[in-house]
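HUMAN: Now follow token order:
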Amino acid sequence: MKRIGVVLLPLLLVACGGEEFQDLREFVQNAGADMRGKIDPPPEVKPYEPFAYNNDAGMADPFKPRKPELRGGGKSGINQPDLDRPKEELEEFPLEGLSMVGYLFQNKVPYAVVRAPDGKLHRVKVGNYLGMNFGLIKEVHETEVVVKEMVQDSAGDWSERMSSLQLAE
């Protein structure tokens, strides 16, 4: 009896399976039958042709520096600041972090009161340095401090840049 049950059970399951999803199976088989995509052929690859830079034609070689080397042998430049002088206390902060909070006039000398990012107040005058770009104070007015900074470009040349600290309200 067990043998008959083992043989009949799979037959019954196959018979009961019916054609419930037959339409779905047919759709899947026929869905892509008439769809054929057209792919363009790849573009033709041209062989590499090296280009020779000719100085006689007046063309600049992009692999050589555009600025001539200085006669002194280094890239010190005319405007190079004095790198050996002792740093002042306000030179450890960026200029953007400093703010002018007051103005004093003592013994015919104008002073600006500058607040550092650490909260300390400093009295500065013309000739003092502040900021991280060798900023030399050129003028002190009631509402601003004019600073000449020295910045170095990627070629190593130094140039001047004028900045100012405005009196904070």
About this structure: Strands lie at 99-106, 109-115, 121-124, 129-130, 135-140, 144-152, 158-166. The two ends are 103 Å apart (CA to CA). Confidence is low (pLDDT under 50) at residues 70-75.
